[in-house]
Design brief:
By secondary structure, the protein is mainly α. It contains four helices and two strands. Helix 1 crosses helix 2 and helix 1 packs antiparallel against helix 3.
């Protein structure tokens, strides 16, 4: 087994990636609730709907005017929410990649990876 797997940085990096996935997953679930509630025409004044819309607004707000909202017989297809979900997925992947880049690697492992990149 490669000694880089037993590095003192491996466990904190693993925990860091778990934390990122947890936060991302929680946010995605809230955004999915927002999308479905709007799609099904949920009452925005109902407690749960109001809570979900209020909590997720801060995340969707930067994307509000990117796409228009599609209205279909009482339902709302909020493309902004789908864009928000995609953007935060890309951000989560980027953060995970940064964590993985900071992992300790042996010289031989680095040489193999560099050689693979050249091919």
């Amino acid at each position: 087994m490669d000694s880089s797997f037993n590095s003192s940085t491996t466990k904190p990096l693993y925990r860091g990636t778990q934390a990122v996935w947890y936060v991302f997953g929680f946010l995605e679930i809230l955004l999915a609730f927002r999308f479905v509630l709007k799609l099904l025409g949920a009452n925005p004044d109902a407690g749960f709907s109001n809570f979900v819309y209020g909590i997720t607004y801060v995340f969707t707000q930067p994307f509000i005017s990117v796409f228009s909202i599609t209205y279909v017989e009482g339902s709302i297809i909020e493309w902004t929410t789908l864009l928000t979900m995609f953007v935060f997925w890309v951000i989560a992947i980027g953060i995970i990649k940064l964590f993985v880049m900071s992992k300790t690697v042996s010289t031989s492992e680095a040489a193999v990876k560099l050689e693979d990149q050249d091919n």
